[in-house]
Amino acid sequence: MINIHLKPKKEESLKRYHPWIFSGAIASKEAEPEEGEIVKVYTSKGDFIAYGHYQIGSITVRVLSWKEDQLVDHSFWGEKLMHAYAVRKQIGVAGSKTNTTYRLVHGEGDNLPGLIVDVYGETAVMQAHSAGMHLQRMEIAEAIVEATKGQIGVIKNVYYKSETTLPYKADLYPENGFLIGGSKENIALENGLKFHVDWLKGQKTGFFVDQRDNRALLEKYSHGRSVLNMFCYTGGFSFYAMRGDAKIVHSVDSSAKAVELTKQNVELNFPDDARHTAYTEDAFKYLDRMGDQYDLIVLDPPAFAKHRGAIRNALQGYKRLNAKAIEKIQPGGILFTFSCSQVISKDQFRTAIFSAAAMTGRSVRILHQLTQPADHPISLYHPEGEYLKGLVLYIE
Q: Across the strands, what pairs with 21?
């Protein structure tokens, strides 16, 4: 194991348990570590401070452990995954007969930076965002299965989906596929509603698990309303609105494949229900032509900014998008609006929405301030983990 020494005072953030070590903080290395190798980190005074995965790039080390006597071995992964599962049981999303989908591992929020695991029934879908997690994928997959043995909702299959999430400079050549087991059963339950999961070709791990609580809130507001679900993807908000007894539900996405998935998911829960119609169209074009027929609108766009250099354009995009919705929604209408861009802060997002409302001249109130659910925990020491921001607005 290669030792890394930090520059003077660069251990201060680590003493506050922030799990990232940036390249500029490193003074020396005994040798050049391999991509994904576990390294031992010392302060400038020679005191041990952490173990972590090494990686070429701005974030050079992602911390796995602060304990010098703790080995990162099979028992390490087993303990971490069992603890993550226990948390999901405590908050009521795992081990349920009406809910078989949840996030089992949320990176830094579960002290496993670079690792995402979502569960859909008996299948866990694993994504590595670091070279280290990729190299240890089989040990992790075994620990995932072991963590749920003997439980309601046992995990039998682990699908690895990291072709698009690993750093391109690492030359890791990942292949998507089952690490353990195999299954063609792709229907899962969320709060009693069924949906297809496309973990083979779908976005992220196949479904946006992070909107579960916000979809449930939308259901409560849907009774008798005309609902527009923009950027619908697989239609999560749409079928919750239908269960909430919406009058009509229209789903819109620029992807024909997403629209087809939405139709399939609606049909799973509400076969031959004439209240739902789906459209394949650009969001801004649809908002331009839609008129004032809706009194509940959902705006849940993909990340407008994936790096800090895109923040300014992203904020303009949020402002423009929300101004159109606020302008055209019926009096007494309710707008659910979101940003999933990690680099956009809550204050920046709220300011963009304020600017959008001011452009329309309408009276707007905040009913709810939304975030990600409890199975997407945020470490107090890593505030960057709070990526999902949302507002529920009442427009007079």
A: 61
Name which residue leads in pLDDT, 344 or 364: 364
CA distance 50 to 308: 28
Single-letter amino acid, residue 17:
Y
State how far the Cα of 126 lies from the Cα of 57, in Å rounded to an integer.
Answer: 23
| Contact call for residues 162 and 128 (beta carbons, < 8 A) | yes
Cα separation, 383 vs 375, whole angstroms: 16
Helix, strand and coil content of the chain, in percent to the nearest 5, comes to 30, 25, 40
The per-residue DSSP string of 81-138 comes to HHHHHHHHHHTTSSS-SS--EEEEEEGGGGT-TTEEEEEETTEEEEEE-SHHHHHTHH
Q: SS3 of 22, please?
A: strand
CA distances from 28 to 2, 25, 80 (A): 11, 10, 30
Written as six digits, the tokens of 320 are 């423009």
Residues of the chain above pLDDT 90, percent: 84
Q: Domains (ranges, CATH) in the chain? A: 3-65 (2.30.130.10), 74-192 (3.30.750.80), 208-395 (3.40.50.150)
Q: What is the pLDDT of residues 91-137, one digit of tens each?
A: 999 999 899 999 999 999 999 999 999 999 999 999 999 999 999 99
pLDDT exceeding 70 applies to what percent of the chain? 99
Contact 56, 62 (CB under 8 A): no
Strands 115-120 and 101-106: antiparallel
Three-state SS for 189-200 is EECCEEEECCCC
Taking the model in full, what pTM does it have?
0.94
Q: What distance in Å separates the CA atoms of residue 322 and residue 299, rounded to the nearest whole number? A: 8
pLDDT digits 0-9 by tens, 18-46 = 999 999 999 999 999 999 999 999 999 99
Token readout for 235 is: 């239609």
- Structural contact between residues 65 and 19, judged by C-beta atoms closer than 8 angstroms: no
Question: Can you tell me the distance from the alpha carbon of 392 to that of 370, in angstroms, rounded to the nearest whole number?
Answer: 8
